[in-house]
Amino acid sequence: MTRTRPARAFTLIELLVVIAIIALLIGILLPVLSSARAAARNAVCLSNSRQVATAYYTWAADNDFKAMTTYPMDLLNDGGYLNLDENNQIQICPETERLGDAAEAASFGLDNGTPGWYGSSQFSYRRDFTNVAGLSELISDSSYQYNGWLLTPEFLSSAVVSSTGFQYNASNPGISEDAYVWNSLDDVADASNVPLLGDGSWAFGLPKNYRADSPQVFGTKFNYDAIQWEQIDPLNPIGSSVEGWGSNSHIIGHYLNRHGDTINMSFADGSARAVGRFDELFELEWHKFYDFERDPPDGLQ
Fold first, then answer.
1. d(Cα 113, Cα 71) in Å, to the nearest integer?
2. Closest CA to 178 of 169, 186, 187
3. DSSP β-bridge partners for residue 266
4. I need a labelling partner for 221 at 20 to 30 A (CA). Which of 9, 27, 74, 95 fits?
5. How far is residue 203's CA from residue 197's CA, in Å, rounded to a whole number?
6. H helices, E strands: number in the chain
């Protein structure tokens, strides 16, 4: 009678070794996969910025390269340059999440917009003027903020955006801020360095000059130290105790860190690229009188 040899089972040590190898492989692969996903989201975001910039440049060419007369997303949508009613996703960075209503936004600590809510590094904002006479009925969810100096002084000083508060700026005594506006791209020497839009927290903003002797001109509640810049609350930049956001606000408060200390940005010539949040962002030509070289912040000389 032939005896059959019983099947050999794995020992406990062998099982533990296999489990350890699998865990090691997972530990190696997960960061690679995570990095690949982040790179893909970054590519989509930059593509969104480029498509919006192309639409803007087409609009500008059709309108003698003049400054925009209302909210950019309204001009581009109502003029048929973008179809945001059907494809609002082009305004959403894949690193951000769209929220359903103001109550949900408030649950994440996002400040109310007028009306809607402001965005953050993790959430898109909502701009809703459906009940405001004379403005588009487009409800705009977006992760991108336009450079307000590409809009007309008349619109920027109108009732719907009166909080921009045009004034005589101490950084250029005697010069009213309406003179800062790029009234025409014909005024621009290098449109590839004039920002159009980038990763941000509201429909548009008016980044100001830096002046070491007048901090309220460029930023509020802020000491100009390169290390302290990193302390800006990425979840709620507008309500941050470190940085003030508004008509006198610091550039870095307008544009948010979603892609590893770079901002995906598009420009007035229709181009798009990533810019460094702590260096190149300050060297762009935000408005007619912006001059980084004259008096750069500490740590960026």
1. 15
2. 169
3. 197, 272
4. 95
5. 9
6. 7, 9
Whether the CB-CB separation of 129 and 135 falls below 8 Å is answered with: yes
* pLDDT tens-place string over residues 25-60: 888 777 767 777 888 899 999 999 999 999 999 999
Rounded distance, CA 122 to CA 144, Å? 12
Task: Please say whether the beta carbons of 94 and 100 come within 8 A.
Answer: no
Nearest to 263 by CA among 217, 175, 168, 195: 195
Confidence grade of residue 114 (pLDDT, cut at 50, 70, 90) = low
Q: Which of 62-76, 212-226, 254-268, 269-283 is least confident?
A: 212-226
pTM of the model: 0.77
Would the pLDDT of 228 be above 70? no
Residue 212's pLDDT band (cuts 50, 70, 90): very low
C-alpha pair distances (Å), 56 with each of 80, 146, 178: 11, 11, 22
Residue 39's Cβ-count burial label (10 Å; 0-12, 13-18, 19+) is exposed
Phi, psi values for residue 184, rounded to 5°: -155, 145
Percent of the chain with pLDDT over 70: 70
